[in-house]
Each structure stands twice: as structure tokens, then as C-alpha cells.
Amino acid sequence: MPEQVDAPIVPGSKIMRVRDVLNPETGELQRSLMTLKVEGQAKLVSDEYEFAVDDGNAARQMLTALGWQEVVTVDKVRLESKTEDYTICIDEVAGLGLFIELEVLTEDSADVKNIQQQMCNFLKNLDIDGKLCHIFSDASLRNLLSSRLFGVYLTLL
């Protein structure tokens, strides 16, 4: 049973997502979150705005009424932890397999390539070897659903 069900809605370089967070034991809805991700100047760099909504279904209906379209639903179980530098998410994505996502908050002027290299080195030091998936848009994620791979999804916020 998925712990999180994401239904991102994508027009261009902005992603609007409504996430339902479920109790992993009972499957009952715990909360719904609405998120807007705006793609930055470099791959895997985005500004993110997130807030709780009382009714995830009503939020999805509102977005549809505004002309947004749901393009993919992602069912996943997520384990999350933090280090001094990163938020680490290990996701088991239905139909895709295991992914590791690292997130870090940075200033707009940060050296993105250097930070991404530091993230890769961090994972290598943990003996984690995988393929870097340059996925920002959920349309790209939808294309991956036809193949299984172990990936490392590095994001900068």
C-alpha cells in the first residue's frame, strides 16, 4: 500500500502537485499537500512552495477548472532522513523500483554543478552506485514507467 500518492499536474516548466499522505499501516488519509515547483536555470534546480490543504480532491478539481491537466500518478513508499547537509528520501515507486533523492537548500548564486558533484560523492562514500536520473518533469517520469532501473534522483531546492 503506498504511503504517498502524488498526482502532479504539469504545464511547461512549472509542476503543480497534490500529494495525499497515507498512513502506511491503515491506508487512511493523514493529510494532503499542494506543491508548486518552478524549474530553475539548471537541471534539477527548482523553487518549491508547499502548503497543507484540507481537501486534496477539491484542490485537484480547482486545478482542473483552471486548465491544468493531471499527467501521471506516482504511488510510492518513502523513508526520509536528514543529515547536516541533505534531506535523504528513499522511495519505492510502484512500477519503477527504488530511488534515492537528495535535497539541499541553497542560495540562488550557488554553484549547482559543484553541489551536484558533492551529492554524488556523498552517495559514493556510502557505497551507493546508481544512475543519475535527470528528472524534473513528471512527463519524464511517465516515460520511465515503461522501464525499471535503480536511480539516484538529485534535486536542489
TrEMBL record:
| Stored PROSITE patterns | CYTH (PS51707)
The protein's name is: Class IV adenylate cyclase
Report the PANTHER family cross-referenced here: CYTH DOMAIN-CONTAINING PROTEIN (PTHR21028:SF2), SI:CH211-156B7.4 (PTHR21028)
Every CYTH domain range: 1-147
Alphabetized InterPro entries for the sequence: Adenylyl_cyclase_CyaB, CYTH-like_dom_sf, CYTH_domain
